[in-house]
């Protein structure tokens, strides 16, 4: 594993995207535990993209306009759905004003937070194409054990993703109490996150392969 890979990965992971925004929103609305669950879900959402890239399925997305558009618009619809839920204060990121975001729903809410994180990354076709273009730069595809090496690099990418997202989420959770005591700030915060999810959905809708 090269220093170039680690530096590039850290830059890519730290740049604000849908996963970062989702984790920040989880920390602010539901606390530290929810932020960690959101980070975990977003990290799990990377697994299918890594598998697709290694199996060569990313080439299908790149070659087939229909396959790419189908996955892209599923992602767009889900981001708009997240925006609508945040605007209405419902769903996985509804604001919890007591405790540490455990709620009164047993395991249902934590599971919803994880699943939402998985779907946010799973339904982004650009992520598969990113791995398709990114990983081969650091691995010789014709070398023995290339697949194992790619899996190792993917594991490092996922570990860094989880770690960076958790840091983002915990920092957001630290500001949670101050936000919850200011109803006007809370209202604009929710609208702000809803607008960001909507804007990201629009950006994905306009994206080309």
Account of the protein in words:
The protein is an all-alpha fold and 209 residues long. The protein has one domain. It is built from 11 helices and no strands. The two termini are 29 Å apart. 39% of the residues are buried.
Helices, by number, come to 11
Estimate the global geometry from the Cα principal axes: globular
Average pLDDT, rounded to a whole number, is: 77
Unreliable stretches (pLDDT < 50, length at least 5) are 98-106
**Helix share of residues?**
over 70%
Succession of helices and strands: HHHHHHHHHHH
Number of domains: 1
**Number of beta strands:** 0
Structural class: mainly alpha
Give the biggest beta sheet. Answer: none
Strand content: under 5%
Q: What integer value in Å does the Rg equal?
A: 18 Å
Distance between the termini: 29 Å
Oligomer: single chain
